[in-house]
Amino acid sequence: MRVDKYLWSVRYFKSRSIATAACKKGQVKIDDVAVKPSREVYPTDVIGVRKNQIDYKVEVLDLPPNRVGAKLVSIYCKDITPKENLEKLDLLKYSKDYYRKKGTGRPTKKDRRDIDDFHNIDEDDREEL
Fold this sequence. Notes:
Elements (H helix, E strand, L loop, with lengths): L2 H7 L6 H9 L3 E3 L2 E2 L11 E6 L2 E7 L12 H4 E3 L3 H15 L11 H20 L1
Antiparallel strand pairs: 1-2, 1-3, 3-4, 4-5
Helix pairs in contact: 1-2
């Protein structure tokens, strides 16, 4: 099975074209060697995937016949990502929360809705007076 199809079928990528693009960019490696999307995958291969600034490591256990459900992924692959990389993911989540300070820059969609709700309440109160 092709490496791009395998990564799509075990749900590491949403679509096969995204998996193919990641392979072409050099974000997918087998045994620390960048691979083309057409590279064949065999059981016992270790695939390294760089996705969202995290380096994932996956060991191929078996080849699925086609895309599998999320509950069945563990039959076909084993996640051997080091814990340090997963801790990095937590740090990225926290850093994104504080990226934009409240009141700076353009309002987000949520800010805009809050402002509109505030203005609508004021108009309703004026009509009652």
